[in-house]
Design a protein that fits this description.
Elements lengths: L14 H30 L3 H25 L4 H16 L17 H21 L1 H11 L7 H23 L2 H28 L7 H5 L3 H29 L7 H14 L5 H19 L9 H25 L7 H26 L5 H13 L15 H24 L2 H17 L4 H25 L4 E4 L2 E8 L2 E6 L2 E7 L3 H4 L11 H7 L1 H5 L4 E5 L15 E6 L2 H7 L6 H5 L5 E3 L2 H7 L5 E6 L14 H10 E10 L8 H9 L4 E7 L10 E7 L2 H9 L5 E3 L24
Parallel strand pairs: 5-6, 5-8, 6-7, 8-9
Antiparallel strand pairs: 1-2, 2-3, 3-4, 9-11, 10-11, 10-12
Helix pairs in contact: 1-4, 1-5, 1-6, 1-7, 2-4, 2-13, 3-4, 3-7, 6-10, 9-10, 9-12, 9-13, 9-14, 10-12, 11-12, 11-14, 11-16, 14-17, 15-16, 15-17, 16-17
Length: 729
């Protein structure tokens, strides 16, 4: 535990100034990433290579800022203040916050171009602000105050910034105006930092004692980093687990990240009551989350999501409390925060970059639960019944019982005895609760409980070739049913194929069956647009729409995820191989690719690029509709699939179409279980009123006019899902 250094005869600014400066800096830092993402998405697209590169830049700049704060500690306080104020002023020369001009060359690699663009655009500002929290805490400690509680202000600022952008700033004003407000905020922060540093300029305090810093062994530094890595990774893996296997709800990612930030405020608080309660409860909620990890259907889903989120928060608080308990004296403060930053980067890299490459399912989540169990399982057992199992002989008995339970899990999986598996899962969880204080036994019992409650089934899926496939866009799973084979992405079915005969395999199903809006148009395409229609499809899925193709038509498919094409062309599915074996496929962000296409390249465009209930907003802005209108021949037809459980997109489609002179109609079709047809909602838009009337004539009872109502204008500068959010869960 840290000991507060004696004052170094240096004057210090009031503590509230440091609190305000750190809060403001963290608030601004958490606004940078979503603002820049909104600026970059229309220009760079949504390909994973782009956003993985962006994440590496942000993580690298954050780590560089912490390293810079640590390096600056070798100088006297006067030099520290002067240098940092100079860095802040130099960074201010890049204001207002904006994306640098220019577009990537056609042959540019995203992993090279995107980091360069982001570094030029936001690098100086992000670097300067990221050093704020550790550096200002170091300045406060020079006067003899305890600096660590200021970390609470830092994370509260980050939490407020996290909520402020999607809930307040994004819905109210556009990106350009937000950038100006952010610039004013940067000016306020600079003045606060100057006020904090002014007393130190008058009375120069000596640099941190290098001998004291050198007393931190590398093993201690690595331990700090590894402890910090687990909650960082667990926050990301919990988010992916919830959005992949439980519910793809809008803004769901905000909850785990927000609670992760709040865990620091609890863990680093001066009053330890809340932190101690969280640390005591964490192992038991960890057991519950592990036992319910593979429950992905039924009425228990809200409870599963709640327990997963609570477990993540409690584990993060417990581990951050452990870091707080191990905090060094203020002379080593910047090294301590540097280690925590390294851990945060390691957790992020593992989940965002490494796991999608080496796993075909979200196995990083159970692995991180086990890592948390290993770190938490060494806590001293509670009094009472736990004292009965503290002896060495009792430990041997517990290991023997666990071995029997593991054998039972293997047997239950092999014989498909669900009752036996449920009993083993419950028994292992109970044993784990008795094993607190025995790190390895607690972790092994937790692993056995997870295997029995569904982990063995998931491992079996992994061993079946083609059953699970993963890319940076998520996990794809092939599911066989009665006479069908489907592709599921997260919680959303992307396509279903009837199996058994060539005729069945060519039958359009799911959202594209013949009674759907797109099905009616495609069935009557020669009458609507002629026998040699040029068809563009954005979002391939299984290639179901291809089975409406006819000789003489020219089809072009656009898909952002190459993995989807590999699955659609695999032996498991036959839509493309039987119906469109030679159709060209354009890989990349469809908006960028359509902008590169020649004008009037298509007679009809079908936009079906919305993965689950998450929508890429840059495909529905006014500028995107202008690109679609340009890619279509005059009077061409634009169809957009807007089936969604959480968002009412009809006002967005109506205003977007009207912004480029297109009127439209809507088809909300009820599915047909006989051909595995799903309920679906499609819109059809065109600048040719006569064509829209012919579309309506394909089935008069199906098509209706796009409804009037509040107009929702989405542009590249200003768009928010809050006005169209109708059911957040």
């Amino acid at each position: 535990m840290a000991t507060i250094a004696q004052p170094l005869n240096a004057a210090s600014a009031p503590r509230w100034l440091f609190t305000a400066a750190i809060f403001t800096g963290s608030f601004l830092l958490f606004l940078v990433q979503p603002m820049l993402a909104r600026m970059a998405l229309p220009r760079l697209g949504g390909a994973p290579a782009v956003w993985n590169s962006a994440m590496l830049v942000y993580q690298g700049l954050l780590l560089a800022g912490y390293a810079y704060a640590h390096w600056l500690g070798r100088f006297g306080s006067r030099t520290q203040v002067a240098v940092h104020l100079g860095v802040l002023l130099l960074a201010a020369l890049t204001l207002p916050l904006s994306l640098a001009a220019g577009s990537p060359p056609a042959t540019a690699e995203p992993f090279l171009w995107v980091p360069w663009l982001l570094l030029v655009s936001v690098g100086p500002l992000f670097f300067a602000i990221s050093a704020q929290a550790p550096l200002l805490q170091r300045w406060l400690s020079i006067g003899g105050d305890d600096p660590y509680p200021l970390y609470v202000a830092s994370n509260l600022g980050s939490f407020c910034g996290l909520l402020a952008y999607p809930l307040l700033l994004e819905p109210l004003v556009g990106v350009a105006e937000n950038s100006l407000w952010w610039s004013w905020g940067y000016g306020v922060m600079l003045l606060l930092v100057a006020a904090c540093g002014l007393p130190l300029l008058r009375s120069d305090a000596p640099p941190a004692d290098r001998a004291v810093i050198a007393r931190v062994p590398w093993r201690t530094f690595l331990r700090w980093a590894l402890i910090a890595a687990v909650p960082s990774g667990l926050m990301l893996s919990t988010t992916l687990h919830l959005t992949t296997d439980v519910a793809a709800m809008p803004l769901l990612w905000v909850i785990p990240l927000g609670l992760y930030l709040l865990s620091f405020t609890v863990a680093f608080a001066v009053r330890r009551t809340a932190a101690n309660i969280c640390a005591a409860a964490a192992p038991f909620f960890l057991l519950l989350a592990a036992a319910m990890l593979f429950v992905v259907t039924g009425n228990l889903l809200p409870i599963v999501a709640l327990i997963a989120i609570l477990a993540m928060f409690l584990v993060a608080t417990a581990l951050h409390s452990r870091l707080y308990d191990e905090r060094p004296e203020p002379a080593q403060l910047t090294l301590f925060y540097l280690a925590m930053s390294v851990g945060g980067v390691l957790g992020g890299l593992f989940c965002a970059l490494i796991a999608p490459l080496i796993f075909d399912w979200t196995y990083e989540h159970p692995l991180l639960l086990l890592a948390a169990a290993f770190l938490l399982g060494g806590r001293q057992p509670l009094a009472g019944i736990w004292s009965l199992v503290a002896s060495k002989r009792a430990g041997h008995m517990l290991w023997l019982m666990l071995g029997l339970q593991f054998a039972g899990a293997i047997a239950g999986s092999a014989w498909e005895e669900r009752t036996l598996l449920a009993l083993v899962a419950a028994a292992s969880a109970g044993l784990a609760s008795l094993a607190l204080g025995r790190r390895w036994l607690f972790t092994a019992a937790l692993a056995t409980s997870m295997l029995a409650s569904g982990g063995l089934d998931r491992l079996h899926d992994t061993m079946v070739p083609g059953q699970l496939t993963r890319s940076y866009f998520g996990v794809y799973r092939v599911l066989d049913g009665w006479g069908t084979r489907g592709l599921v992405h997260g919680t959303t079915t992307h396509g279903v194929q009837l199996v058994g005969s060539p005729e069945r395999e060519r039958t359009p199903t799911s959202y594209y069956w013949s009674g759907s809006g797109v099905g009616r148009v495609m069935t009557n395409l020669p009458a609507l647009l002629g026998p040699q229609a040029r068809v563009g499809v954005v979002g391939v899925g299984l290639g179901t729409l291809g089975c409406y193709s006819r000789p003489g038509e020219r089809w072009t498919l656009f898909e952002i995820d190459p993995t989807v094409i590999e699955i659609a062309r695999s032996p498991s599915f036959k839509f493309l191989s039987r119906c469109l074996p030679d159709a060209p496929v354009v890989i990349g962000d469809a908006r960028l690719k359509l902008a590169e296409a020649a004008p009037a390249s298509f007679d009809i465009l079908v936009i079906d690029a919305f993965s689950s209930d998450a929508i890429p907003m840059h495909l529905l802005t006014r500028e995107a509709f202008a690109i679609y209108r340009r890619a279509l021949r005059p009077g061409g037809l634009l169809m957009i699939h807007i089936s969604n459980r959480h968002l009412e997109l009809r006002p967005v489609i109506r205003t977007g179409g009207e912004s480029v002179g297109m009127k439209g109609v809507l088809a909300s079709a009820v599915g047909d279980p006989l051909v595995r047809g799903y309920d679906s909602t499609w819109t059809a838009l065109s600048s040719d009123a006569a064509l829209i009337e012919r579309v309506k004539a394909t089935e008069a009872d199906l098509w209706v006019g796009l409804p009037f109502g509040p107009r929702v204008h989405w542009t590249d500068d200003h768009a928010s899902i809050l006005p169209v959010l109708v059911r957040p869960w």
